[in-house]
Structures are given as C-alpha cells and as structure tokens.
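A note from the maintainers: we've had questions about how concatenated examples are separated. There is no special marker in the raw files; a new sequence line simply starts the next protein. For clarity in this README we add a label.
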Amino acid sequence: MAVAGAGASRDKRPNVVLLVADDLGIGDVGCYGNTTIKTPNIDRLAKEGARLTHHLAASSMCTPSRAALLTARYPVRYGLVGELNTPSVVVHVASRVGLPLSEITLATALAAANYTTAAVGKWHLGQGCKLGGRGCLGPRDHGFHSFYGLPFSLVEAFVGPHPFWIFPLDGSDPFYQVLVTVWVMVMAWALWARWRLSKIILYLILLAFPSSLCWFLHTHYRFHTQRWWQVSPWMDQHMNGIVMDNDRVTEQPVQLEGLSQRLVQRSVSFIDQHANDPNPFFLYHSFAHVHTPMFTAKDGSGRSVHGRYGDNVEEMDDGVGAILNALDRHKLADSTIVYFLSDNGGHLEALAEDGQREGGYNGLFKGGKAQGGSEGGIRVPGIYRWSGHIPAGVTLKTPTSLLDALPTILQLVGLPPLDHLMPHLPKRELDGMNIADLLTDGKDLPSRSFLHHCGRDIHAVRLVFEQLVYKMHLVRYKWSPGSTQCGWGNEEGCSCFDVEDHGHLPQLFDISSDPYEDRPIPQNSSKYFQVTGVMKQFLAEWRARVPYPPSQFKSKLDTMHSLWLQPFLSRS
C-alpha cells in the first residue's frame, strides 16, 4: 500500500494556486524595486521562480481584468465592459450582470480534469442570485466547488455608520419638501372637507405606501442622477458589503478588521484539508488588499512608513507568506504551481479625507488604474513558481499577459488545450498565449499583438516582433497638469470616455528601448509610417473579424440593484 501510495503521488498532477492582489502597483513590491515597503514573501516567490517584468493586465479595472484572467479572452467579447453612461465594473451583488455561463474558466477546465477547486476572497464577477436571494452560486457557476469571501468588492461606504433614515428639509433637495407639502395638503383637504376620523386614517394609510416607496427610491437609489446605477452609502454597506460561504451570507455588513486574516485562514484550511487527496487542487485566492478603503488588524496598524497603504501591502504579504507556509508544511512546494499577480495598476488618485495617500505606485510607468491604455494601469507584477520545473530567480522581459494564465497552466499541469480537453463544447478563440516554454526553458514566444481596451474602445495597441516592442496610443487622457493622473480622491480617476481621440495621428513608442514612453517616435519618420501602418492594418482586420456585443451594463434592469435578488444574513 505504501508503494502504491507513493506511485499515485508521483503520478498526481501538480496543484495550482493563484494569488491575486487588488490594485497593487508594480512599484510597491520589493522584487520590483521598492525599498521602503516590506514584501519578503512575494520577494521569496520571485527568488524561487520567474519574475515577469513586462506582464500586462487585459484591463485597468477589476471586473474585466479578472474575467480575462480566468477565461483567457478579452471581456469585450462577452460584453463585460462599460459604455458611455454605464458603470465599468459589476456594481451590486443583487444584479443580473456578470461572467456569462457560456464562458469557460480555468476552474471549469481544471475541475473537468478532477481538480478540487476553491475560490477565496474577492469575486466581483456577478453572483447570479435568483428570486429571494436564493441560488447565489457566483464562482460555483464557473467551475469552483466552493467559495468563501466577498461576492462584490470593497467601496468606501463599507466604513460606517451610515443612516437609513434621511429626510433633510434644509432645501438642499426639494424632493423632501414636496413630499411634506403633499402630506400637508392632504391633511388640510381632509380638515376642510370635514372627513370622519376613520376616513382620514384610511386615506393616510393609502398615501403612506406610495409616498414611502417614493422616499425610499429617491433616498437610497440614484435613478434621478447621471450615475443611475449607484445606491446610498447605507445600501452599499448592507447590501453589497457582505461575506458569503458558498450561497450563505455569514457577515452583513462585512467586518473589515481581520478580514484579510479570515480569508487567508480559509485558504490555509483548504490546503490542509486537501493536501493528501488523491486528486490535485486549484486554489484561487483573491486578496481584498490593497483596494480602498484601507484596513488592517490592530497589530498591523502603523507598521509601514507609507501609512495605511503600506500597512495594507505588508498585511497582504503576510497572507502570501501564510499560504506558502501551508504548502511547505505539507511538502507541496515542489508539486504546486504558484502564480502571483495584480489585477491592474495602482489607483494613483486615491486620497483619504485626512490627506493620506491610499493609492499605489506604478514605478516610472505613466498613468494608473482606470486608464486602459496607460502603462501604469496595465503593467503589473507577475511571478510564477514551480520548484524543479521553473528555474529559480530568473527575470523574463518578454511581454506576457494575465490572458495567458489558462493555456499556460493547462500546459504546465500536463493537460491538452481547452478545445481538446472539453471537445463537447463549442470552440472558442482564446486571446491568451501558452507561455509554458518561456517559463520553463526561456524559449522565445512568437510575435503577437495586444489590444488595450477601456470599456469597449481600444485605447492602445502593442506589437511584439522578435526583440522589438511597439505601442501605439490612439487616445490621450486629460491628466492634471504636471501629472499622469486625473485629480485626487478615492472616487476619482480618469474616464474611458472623456479622452482626446488621436486615432488619425496616434503616438508611437518603442517600448523595448523606451519603456517609460518618454520619447515618441517622430511622426514624420519612415519607422513611424511603417510600424503604425502594420498596426492599423491589424486593428482594421480585428474589428472586421471580431464584432463586439453591447455592454451588459447597458441594460439598466440587469445592472441596477434588485432587492428581490438580494441574499440576506440568516438569523436562525
């Protein structure tokens, strides 16, 4: 039996662990050059694996970037991107938008190969709740056997308290004065008409329902504003600020202090539970850090010279260390592929009310989160470790992408490509590339192109040809003077739709020799015409070949918060 067990262990496919940071800037990590924020565990991954220095997110926003990571396809292919006058990410737990069931995720593929799969932490890809808040499968609709964490994301409103009862009569919003006026007029009419008391009470009861409904919709929804998808801080905190264990709500509202530790402990428990299983496991651990609002456990507050933001990065690094230690404890380091990444670049504009900066640092790359074509918004940390298979301590400068995760991991674990693994499903074109040979042997990748979307629009194109990398900017952002950001504040950021169109005469950079885009190639040079001509032709062929469906967020009924779909904490 011992010999048979050893043989089964040798034949077992490697485990897979994805560690996803939220809004972490590439300049915030020690192994990418930071000398003032302590990230020893992430740095350890880089020493024991391959550090990618030209690693790109498929989007500069959470929802579309995470969708691309799991599907290897641009989310614009299935409408999970914003349009003008719509949100750019999933904005409610109780809504109908999200990752379509027709899309195949990495978890779906690995589950088909008998992997035990779990998602822990932030999901933010739609929960798929049914009437009465039932059947909120979320990740379990997409190949994960279990889920624990935030079905939504983090927003500033999660820090409270926020009042439910709001009825200002100071004139700041005439709606409330009109509502009071209606009630006064009804009472005056009743007194003038000398109605009986029973009749007055009946009319007041009949009036109470529509007036209460009007008050609730006006106070806690924002249908009457340009940002029609938003809700009040109280609604955000109590409806979106929840933690779920599979389809059961366990915290409502979420308790931020200690959240990182609770999420990490769930992942550690998952590893402990499945370390010796005959089948391998896939763990997708998505940190809540370092998205605003900033929070840490009491013993982690004030540890960093960079204030709350530095505290958050270091607390996240502690979580990485705890998960790596769990793998070590079970002697799984050699049989587990670990992939660490950030979903997009740092949020440069993030600034707390007390003046503390709460956004990341993107090194010398220009721009940040919410800027689809800016290098700072899409150049992210990326580290692969698989001891004994991926050489330790190597740095790879070849352009790669989060889109590459699915085909790469299938190759690394010894599974066939997606279409062969799941031949019963319709064939689909993947936008990611298999980079397994690059990671394991340093082999060059074939030439490729990257599209950098902001919403449904293409803001930049990147062409990789042999050792050359060119990037063509089709728009310019309206940065604040002397900066590469748009204002200050946790709710601030550059807009995809308030840009200057330069598609007729785009800017071109040679990223291989000018990674920080300081020297645009002269627009009257032969190189400019040659390279932009190739890239424009590629762009025209792409647009003719790949039609984009409308944004899912275009439907107000699907996007809005729907109370009838809301899951609630069970008090039983």
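[label: protein 2]
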Amino acid sequence: MNGFAPGSSSQPSSEVELTISCRNLVDADVFSKSDPMCVTYLKSYLQADWQEISRTETIMNTLNPNFAKKIHLQYWFEEQQALKFSVYDIDNESADLEQHDFLGCCECTLGQLVAAGTLKMKLKGAGIHRGELIVTVEEMATCRDEVTLQFCGHRLDRKDWFGLSDPFLEFYKVGEDGSYVLTHRTEVHKWTLNPVWQPFTIPIRSLCGGDMQRTIMVICYDWNRNGSHNRIGEFFMTLQELSAGPGESTVYHCIHPRKKERNPSYTHSGEVRLMRYEMKKVYSFLEYIRGGLELSCTIGIDFTASNGDPRSPDSLHYISHHPNQYEQALSAVGEIIQDYDSDKLFPVFGFGARLPPDGRISHEFPVNMNPQNPYCDGIAGVLQAYKMCICQIQLYGPTNFSPIINQVARIAESCQDGSQYFILLIVTDGVISDMPQTTKAIVQASKLPVSIIIVGVGNADFALMDVLDADTVPLCYQGVQASRDIVQFVPFRNFQRYGDVRQAKAYLAKEVLMEIPDQIVSFMKSRNIKPKPPVYKNVEAPPPAYDELH
C-alpha cells in the first residue's frame, strides 16, 4: 500500500536515513589515535530537552571515521526537528558518556539537512580546531525486505611482513549525488589470504536504496592496528547480479587502481566470492494485526508510600473530580490498546501495598481484590477498580518490578506461536528497589512476545528507568545481553505543560506506544513467524441517520 486514500488527509512525512563521518578529529589519546563514536540527539518543538536517539559503533585508532551504523528518522515537513551530534573518544566499555573524552559537537535541523543532502559542520568545543562532521541524508524506499549475504576471499594479496593479511570488506552504495556511502563493514579475519566472513543481514533499501540495479562498491582492506588500513582491492556489483546466487557470475576480482595503472601485466589482487544469497520479506505490524494477532495488556500500578497519603490533595493517588496522573496514564494508553484486544478484559495488579485484613505486603495483588478473577472490563472497569482499591489498602513499599514482569513472562512463555502479544503497562512514581532482579527479568523476557511500557508520574529521579529503556545502550545482566529492546519509558511530567488533559493524554499515548509496532515485528522476525491471511470480522454497521430514512 502506498498510503494514498482519496477523500482522506495525511501529514506529509517520509523516513530518512542519516550516514555520519568525521574528518580531522582531535587526537585525545597519548600513544595512539582517538577511538571515536558519535551520539545523535533529537529535539522537536514539543520537547524542552535533547533526547538521545542513537549511538554509532566505535572505530579504533582513527581521526577520520566513516560510521557504518545508520540513523533512521521520520521526517515531518511541517515540524522543526533539531539534531545534535556529539563525538566522543571512547576509553572503556562504560555506557556513561562522562567516562569518555568529549571531542566536539554540532547542531542543525533535519529540514536543513534534507534541503542540502549533505552537510559539513565544524565541531565545537574547547580549543580552536575540533575537526568537522559530515552528515548525508537519503529518503528510504518503501520496501522493507532484507537480504542475507555471505562472502569469502580467495588468494588475496599479502600485505603484512610475514606473508599474510588481516582482511575485511566495506560495502558502499551510490548516493543520489553520485558519491559513495558506507553501508556495511564486515569483521576482520586475522592471518589469512582465504577468509570466510560471517553472514550478515541488511535491509535492501539501506544496501542499494531498494534498487536491484543500483551499483554497490566493495573495498577489501588489510586491517592495521594503527587505523591506516591498506587497500587490497575493490570491485563493483549489483543486487540483481547477486540474486543469481553462488557461481561463476558472482566471483569478483579485487582490483587495486594504482597497481592497475602502473603495471600493464597486473590482473587482480585476489578474488571475493559470494557464498550465500537469501532474500527475505519483512512483514509489517499491520499485516500481523490483519492476520488476527491480538494484543493482551496487563497493568501494574505502584501503590508505594512515596506516592503520598491518598487522603491528601498532594498525593499522586488523590481521588477527586479531576483525574490524577495515574488515571490519566491508564486511560491514555489503555484506550488505544483495547482496540486490539477482542475481549477488552485487562488483568490489573498492584505492588508495594499492605493488604487487608492482616496488612501483609504484596507486589502482585489483583487491584479488584479478586484473586480468582483479576480481570477488569475495559478501561472504565480498570479505573473503577483502581479507585475502590485505594480505599482498601495501605500504601507501603518497596518498589519492586520483577514479580509482575516475571508473572507476565510466564504467561507469554506458553504462547509463542504469534497469535498473541503481551504488553505490560507499569505506572510508577519512584526509583526501582529491585534493579538487579528487574534487569534479569527484562533480559529473560526479551526472548518472549512481551513489551513493557513504564510511565513515570510525579517528580522523582527516573535515571534508572532510562537504563531499562535501552534505546541506545543494550540492557545486560551478568554478561547476557537482551535479545530485543522491549522497554519504553516516558515521564508523565513531560506532558504536564499541556493545560488541556485530553491533549496531554493524546501526546502521552503517542510517545509510549510508538515503539510497540517495531517491537512486535522484531519478535516475529526472531521466530520467523509470518502473518496469517487477513481476518475479516463481521462488524455490525451503525443504524442509518434520520435524514437517510426521510
């Protein structure tokens, strides 16, 4: 579908891809060159603060890095989207940017970048010369299919003292202005002239702009520790050629341009051969929904004492004629999710409270106080149960997330066939008390059909929530990395400046739900689950208007 619907309206937007490189960076290391990484921040007209959206890979020992990792953004013509690029010299494995040397930063708007195509900007910081940053933008093709490729080298040129090389490949697509843009870099194989590189999967729109005939340049290098890699040779190909699969037509000679010019008898510097070609269709969120996928939403509510005495108007749980932040968050997110849930029954659990009659502490009790049936009918039922619960419990503590996360994970573990996807909405006011256990629970749940939405209410320090969000730094527990990013955290205070409650709820819902479609698709891809054929449900049409009858 191309999104054109006569008689409707649509905001003009498109998805764009940013490619970043730097030149003449400051050398922050003593015995080697800097190891640069670029962090990208976004700020829209709705935001007061910069939001980190991406980090490139770190490239060792170079002052002129070409970053392979891309940044994908939705470009809105009518909005001003400010971008900031900060470059760091990475000194260790810490995700904390304060632990690394700041090399410089620059700012522009996405509109300026789109208009220019390529922007060269001076990096700013302490000192006169900090180098420059180059950003190239290209509109992405609508095709989302991916291709898996694998190559091997055969009798490549010797570049090292002891008669071998440390080869790796870089892939470049032709930009719209005729320049070449780095799209992928393989791993390095040490001490060999016959490397077998690992398979890699890449969207064809990133590799060649979705055009099977578009030229792709491949450069084979011999890796050097000091960052000055030696060129072994280069060759050109198209995805159309590769689609023939391994064979004589996909054996490429590495040609070193200068050797070819100087030596008339020069033939090539070795061969690079295609070992694997596999095109894979990538399905959309809507295709899974149309195929009958149902979203099941479990709700967790923070009833710890840090929320304040619910009898006081200062409490976040204060019940009055005006909805409090908990009520606004529950209705904002729930009203959208319930459209994809056929029975609209929500299991709702509280944590951090003392329960009647004996005051025992619980971190996963049913808010409707019915252990045999914790389900509430629609969001109206959720809000009603929430208000009644406030009168029956005592707010206490601590703030433990892991019990309710593990509970949803256990349910999701028994349903991994792609028919259901589970969303856990947690509304909380404070810092997590069981951070190690919560991290472990999220890492384990990342393999399951689960997404976790955390809405922070009040004015507490939510720094740990940003760690769990893991948009730019993968979440790890004891060396095990989460297989997917499944957490989205949003502080409610970001939307309190809207005087109108309905407007605040609308923006909140948009922010917390924006990652859900991609998280669902990433799970389906990880299990190779294809959407089922569209399910057409019989929906009773509304009765005709009076004017139509008379």
